[in-house]
Amino acid sequence: MSASSKLPPFDPADPLGIDDLLEPEDLAVRDTVRQWAADRVVPYVADWYERGELPGIRELARELGAIGALGMSLSGYGCAGASAVQYGLACLELEAADSGIRSLVSVQGSLAMYAVHRFGSEAQKQQWLPRMASGEVIGCFGLTEPDHGSDPASMRTYAKKDGSDWVLNGRKMWITNGSVAGVAVVWAQTEEGIRGFVVPADSDGFSAPEIKHKLSLRASVTSELVLDDVRLPADAVLPEVVGLKGPLSCLSHARYGIVWGAMGAARSCFEAALDYAKSREQFGRPIGGFQLTQAKLADMALELHKGILLAHHLGRRMDAGRLRPEQVSFGKLNNVREAIDICRTARTVLGANGISLEYPVMRHATNLESVLTYEGTVEMHQLVLGKALTGLDAFR
Predict the structure, then answer these.
(1) What is the pLDDT along the chain (396 residues), one digit of tens a residue?
(2) What are phi and psi of 91, to 5 degrees?
(3) Which Gene Ontology terms cover its molecular function (predicted)?
């Protein structure tokens, strides 16, 4: 470096200079989603959360479709064909607004649309994907059951052949978007193994009662799916997959989005704590001038930007076709855990104000308690990594 060269200034919002790794197209995607969230979610989400509702979800879905956020990493059929890094950046910005909004997008694109795109017939893709990409149709993904969460191989939902038709019976639980979905991808036991089915929500015997009294993800639609002799034609089955590898590959794709998304919630809490620390005065000066507060802020920034760097690395591996499921578990386990710790530390900086919905901290902290255990609990991801490290299976 010559004597005349100057280092760029230190940026508290990007202390590691991670933005230097992003292409102009990446930044354009990030800025578009950030602006949409700032206009359409941030001013209202505290009220939605307090009421336990997500009003106007169908309108929000259409707006998300219009900016290319639904199924954005898929190609064709009206999908944006964005890179994995761009999809991750979108998840980060959406979850910085609220985990429920990111969940809406993740379930739509990384679970329901991804399942049809990867395992569906051409007719199924043509029928559903363009309308789902535009937000005209909302989708959901039925895997978890009331008695079987971490052990989907033991699911009780069953599909049996009746002539050329399929007849489905069973229940699914904790299904995001369930009661507003126009289509559900439902996984069921069959004589030949676990299969996926595309189930229109207006099918006879299908219902999706909404789950109430949640204390987390309150600005999100969560439902039970009930299948009572739901009769489907032969072409409702996803033809390209048999077995658990179908739903598990969908979950891996969605977990990748969580790796980024969790850092969005963490960033929102860190920014709230930093702003508060610079303006809140105690003992005659801002609390950000005290050593203990600065130590908290430094530790939060450290884990936040390490997590974003990890997410970026995994995104580049996904774009190169080299991302393994174990690496997704690595990212999900680390980033959600660290995001929760950042939220809790931010709450201490804000003191009593940290529990008020005037600030985003407690809302993000409670939302992340759900993110911690959905799409793979802490223990499941620890065991995935443990098996990868030792070569020994401790699941059973």
Answers:
(1) 555 578 999 999 999 999 999 999 999 999 999 999 999 999 999 999 999 999 999 999 999 999 999 999 999 999 999 999 999 999 999 999 999 999 999 999 999 999 999 999 999 999 999 999 999 999 999 999 898 878 888 899 999 999 999 999 999 999 999 999 999 999 999 999 999 999 999 999 999 999 999 999 999 999 999 999 999 999 999 999 999 899 999 999 999 999 999 999 999 999 999 999 999 999 999 999 999 999 999 999 999 999 999 999 999 999 999 999 999 999 999 999 999 999 999 999 999 999 999 999 999 999 999 999 988 889 999 999 999 999 999 987
(2) -60, -40
(3) fatty-acyl-CoA binding; flavin adenine dinucleotide binding; glutaryl-CoA dehydrogenase activity
* Phi, psi angle pair for 246, to nearest 5°: -65, -65
CATH number for the domain spanning 226: value is 2.40.110.10
Q: Are residues 257 and 384 in the same domain?
A: yes
Residue 274 lies in a domain: yes
Annotated catalytic residue 210: no
Residue 187's DSSP bridge partners are: 196
Active-site position among 95, 224, 303, 375: 375
395 domain-assigned: no
- What domain range is 307 assigned to? 245-390
Of the residues 111, 133, 155, the one at which a domain ends:
133
Interatomic CA distance for residues 88 and 72, integer angstroms: 10
**Are the C-beta atoms of 185 and 140 separated by less than 8 Å?**
yes
Do 126 and 147 sit in the same domain of this protein? no
